[in-house]
Input
Amino acid sequence: MNIILFGPPGAGKGTQAKYLVKKLNGYQISTGDILREEIKKDTDIGKKIISNMNDGKFVSDEIVNMLLKNHVFDPIKKEKLIFDGYPRSLSQAKNLDLLLNNSNQKIDYIFFLNVNKETIVERIKKRKILEKRTDDDLETTLKRYDTYVETTRPVLDYYSKNSNFHEIDGAMEIDQITSKIEDFLNV
Ligand code: AMP
Output
């Protein structure tokens, strides 16, 4: 089955994705991780990515979609995709539909982890200390949140009418969120 974890930055998508990877033998498709990997490899694309990422801005759809495609079409990962941080815009959501269609797949569950701005700021502060992520400063976080409101939240309208869409209170403890997800998945 394929799953989308959707929500603002700092909602806990990555944490839940990692758990689901273990539980379901799946593959975490984190575009943030994929982009950071590209930066590490110091490729030409990596150099383009770095300035946008550190600014709290989105990396272009062209780059993200190109990097994502290989994962969606990877036969090993087929039907085991756990999306974390993608799609982040309406055009990405439509691109994902197209990629899935072309590889005879669909999304089975969309989990929206709903968290307010104050909770996110607190979490990012903690994550910065734990994970030592250089792109995690408060200013970047606030910019990211604004970008989320402007560009990512409209994706909710695109998905929320679907019967596979489930909203979860992302302010709950990690374990509580996990067990909500498990209830929906019946695992
Ligand atoms: P994340 O690790 O998901 O918090 O992503 C970190 C940063 O990577 C974001 O602030 C964006 O600059 C970039 N990024 C990650 N995923 C995407 C995406 N789907 N579209 C555009 N930019 C992205």
Remarks:
- Residues 3-185 form a domain with the Rossmann fold fold (CATH 3.40.50.300).
- DSSP finds nine helices and five strands in the chain.
